Amino acid sequence: MDGVNVVELTIVIVFFLIVTVMGFVASRWRRAESLMHLDEWGLGGRNFGTWVTWFLLGGDLYTAYTFVAVPALMFGAGAAGFFAVPYTVVIYPLVFLVVIRLWSVSHVRGYVTPADFVRARFDSPGMALLVALTGIVATMPYIALQLVGIEAILKAMGVEGELPLIVAFVILALYTYNSGLRAPALIAFVKDTLIYLTIIVAVIVIPVKLGGWDAIFGAAEEKFSAGTGAGVLLPATGQLGYATLALGSALALFLYPHSITGVLAASNRDVLKRNMSALPVYSLALGFIALLGFMAIAAGVTPIGEDGNTIVPVLFQEMFPSWFAGIAFAAIGIGALVPAAIMSIAAANLFTRNIYKEFLKKDATPKQEAQVAKIVSLVVKFGAVAAILFIDPQFSIDLQLIGGVIILQTLPAVALGLYTRWLHRGGLIAGWFAGMLAGLVMLYNIPRLGPDGTVVREHFGGSSFALSKLGLDVASSVYTGLLALLANLVVAVLVTVLLRAMKVSDGVDATAESDYTAEREDPTFRDLPDPLESAPPGVAGERATRR
Amino acid sequence: MASAVTPPAGTPRSTDGAPVRSDRSPWNWLLLVPIVVPLLVPIYNRVEPTLFGWPFFYWVQLLFVGLGVLTTVLVYRATRRSPADQAAARAAVTRDAAARTTDDRTGGH
Known about the structure:
Chain B: Keywords: Membrane, Transmembrane, Transmembrane helix. The complex is a heterodimer. Chain A contains 22 helices and four strands. Chain A has helices at residues 6-25, 38-41, 50-61, 64-77, 84-109, 114-122, 125-157, 163-179, 182-210, 212-225, 239-253, 257-264, 269-278, 280-298, 311-319, 322-360, 366-390, 396-407, 411-414, 425-444, 480-501, 538-545, and strands at 448-449, 455-457, 464-466, 477-479. In chain A, strand 1 (448-449) and strand 2 (455-457) form a beta hairpin. The radius of gyration of chain A is 23 Å and the shape is globular. Chain A starts with 5 loop residues before the first helix and ends with a helix. Chain B is elongated. Chain B is mainly alpha-helical. Chain B has one domain (26-103). The chains are: A mainly alpha, B mainly alpha. The interface between A and B is large, with 70 and 63 residues.
């Protein structure tokens, strides 16, 4: 036990035990008759009010990635790392009107995943499969990213080896299996209380110890003036990349399956609208968290073993007494467990609804669906642990950015689909392939540069694509995801025009216009057969069956 | 095609009995402000004026958080449904919860 900080470790273990008990007890919280239905296990009964949704979505969207990787980026790259703030400002007004349409149509038709919606809207199991696969693939590195947060605090506490990480995830996997979405919803209360406490204390205590904000920004100015000469500002060539990364990340965030799971678990539209105003409180906290990177510069923090992700834990250790550092570490650790649980549930829902039930066992009962989803949630978590043990965690933030590039390719089907059915299902599929291809080719061709401008890694070195590579005579870069989305949309429109000219059938829309604005008290199709069980009835059929 | 429903006052029923509603409102245009402003990087990529030692670039972006909250609150309040409609939604939540819960819990929340 040499080199292990016993006080910190004890506090972290105590909090971990508390949330473990809560995780198992959660199955009895707002208890349903049976958890063996995806509406219950996978969406917590679709019944969360404003407060629970605020904690759940906050715990879901602002992850351990927030606490660890954003300050690490500020520490390493300066102002560019602050993109997390405009990103999380732009997001809520951007999706304000969109998420309520998704909630309404899913409420009326009983959809559990975005792919359920795409299948019914465009009459296309193929496009639904692509949406499901993209969601699962994009979520995996995101779960892995959460493990990086836990790993960083373990390193800071002097705990060696991978065993504690594996134990933590096995326990998480078990209570998620047991309680479903209720577990992270309940634990999120603890997570966010600890995080707000840590941030408030950090913002008051650390600047005092370091000699004020002037000293903090001064130290950062000194560090970054050496390279680009831009100091604590963005270099002229970095501004377009900053804005496009913020916008692209914002467009991507609510396409992730785990965000949609949080949205669909809300009890009504007003809950979501109120949360679009209340969730930015987390963005404010995120701004302060980002500046921990500059505080680490001013404090002269050196990362453990050149792992930039450890700078925040090390900073806390230097600035706080052991007992409070322990609380801060618990905040990061639990901050990793909540989103990891929601993400694995979301991935499991996708697999169950859009792969298992669609292609493997069409007559699966709701009970069988829930059972499959529970098992898949276990598999997903073990996959994430394996990924983190075998892939260099130093690049965790880039893994997440790559996930963002590919999830954006579902935007035409999922987000535009909520407004219009003009795009043909064939066009959507063609566009998806074009966007994926363009995105992956661009990511492959982005090198990672070291501080001195030499190439450290030749491929997949980041997500900001130099426009000069497209033959444009400018020094700016653009977020790859947006360029790939552009390629996607162009192909989708062209193929749609072509297919319409050839009079190829675009199937039957299984949703009605009134579904998209339905309120909680409006009639739903709950009592009717599952939409995946039979061919969509179409508008004519709907009129007859509607109550 | 989609998005073609016009918003008559109240919530009249369409031929199949589903309420005809709409999310359309001129207030929604306000949402563009907090989307566009934070993306105009050149207008705030500078140090002066500083505030409590913070360069403009940093404090103004935290101020944008407030701008986002303000506009979404405004739009929400301006487009809010009547108290009676909101009560109907809450009643539906309670009704569905009661239908789902086990017998020993049906009495409370």
